[in-house]
Structure prediction request, 608 residues.
Amino acid sequence: MHSSKNNLILLTASVLLIIVYYTIFGQFFPNKHEQMGHDYSFYLPSLLDGYFWHQINGLWKIPWFTPSFCGGSLNYININNGYYTVPQFITFFTDPLTAVRFTFLLFAGLGLSGFYLLLRRAFFTSQTISFLGAGLFMFNGFYAHRMLIGHLFLHSFMLLPFIAFILLRPLPEEKKGRHWQFVFDIVIGGFLFAYMVQSGFSSFMIPGIISIVVAGLIHGLLFGKQCHFLIRWVGSGFVGILLCSSKLVAIFSLMESFPRSGYKLPGARSFFEAAWLMLKSLFISPAFDPCRIEKLTNVQWHLGRHEWEYSVTFIPLIIMLYGGWKILQQIEKKDLGLKLSRIRWLSVAAITALLILPVALNTFSPGWNTFLKQLPLLKNLSNLIRWVIIYIPIVILAATLILEKIAISSKYKMGIIVISMAAVIALNALTERDFYHSQNYDPEEIIKTYNLVKEGLWMPEITNIGVYLNKNGQTIMPLFRNNMLIHGASQLLCYEPLFGYRLEDFPIKSLHPGPAMEENKGVLNIKNPSCYVWPEVNNCEPGDHFTVEQKEAAKTFLNFRHFPFQMPTSQRIANWINGLSLIAALFFLTLYGARALIAYRRMSPFES
Prediction:
């Protein structure tokens, strides 16, 4: 009875916390000027484009390409697009703006519950301390402000605690149930990893995985059994690769033509300046001030306020400093050293190295920068400040574990928890966010077009290649330029990071404003997007157009339908692996669910 009462109180507190959270941040969807973050100018048209495809083709056909942008571009293959994601799925039922709101709230709740489970069921902290850690994580500045600015693909960041929980939770004692849960954890972890790739989290995957590894090493220090975590981690990674192998292979093919490796990597002038920038971004809110940019060198692109939003507030820092001091009073230093075995010392060394890595990556020197620009994946990025996300879950984890270990009365500890949570809410509520209220992307056109299509009043089709002109007839690139799909036209000067922030890598060739089916020197005025990713097997070069002989294929493409193109053998194999892995994983989960249901009905644990 006492446990049920505690659970009810916890559930009520969680619901109230989510309501408070949405009260603070929900006012930006849209903001007080009825506008939204500038990068929604990419994602809202993309969601509408995905809805067009679904309306015409249904759920099961893969939207490899889209005619809606750049005179023919990439959809499923685009690293930034997420057709098989929650926000896109929600748009099959309601408009893109509502889908964004629901996604924001849903994944905030998943972050809250995931971190609670991680602390409560994997690190065995008390309910109240677990709730504090969960609340701290939900209010992290990275997720909220990236969603405010329009980085919709980063909603999957909030899945990291769930993945860590799945990989670290204890296994049943009895042998058969242990094996079933072990495989179940690997499969679920694989699904979550695959979802992150599908959502467009790919450029953040390495720091995200590192944060999980650090959490696993900390768990090993406290409880041992590192091998269980490592096997599940490797297994989940392998399953995740299988479950998104189709997209991964296609993306790697695409990167051969568009590596995006020409951008500079900014960094601080010294290691200590880089460390200070990280500390300020983690513990101070608001996170932005002009002095931070001045401390960077080798800067190519302006880093706006949202690029510095990682704050977990100063509350975890105070807890760690106070708690660390109290713990040092409780133990003698010689005892601390004797308790660490060789394996544990190796774990400490690994944790230290991984936590130093973001600081090192953001320290600039010519030789070091040259080395980084030669590394796979890192060379394709425009900044590495985003690796600060490694610290967000780890700092909160450390603070809550230290608070759990402090030898003080439960009443005093409860006071710390209540004051800390109240302070975090107050700090977030009182933070100045005029930058986000000044954002000026208007979602109204997208919503109106969505409703027209849903009511059957307009059938999506691309008939023209277009640009926007000013009053003097000069070509301009307004923020809303990707909205041109609502007029049945594909924006020539599109907003597409794949081709560079200024379209410096976009092979325009003969593409020009005018009818998409216009013929000129044997080609049509529409790109054949299969040439971007598989040029050799399609006998073309990246950026080539449909030829006059491919007129029927071009018409099919412009009507949001699958057109004939060739794939290399490696891509076909990846597609089969992806499909068969998905079927196998779903089959196992069905068996696991049936077994769990039978066990529940018997009101007994799994029988060996």
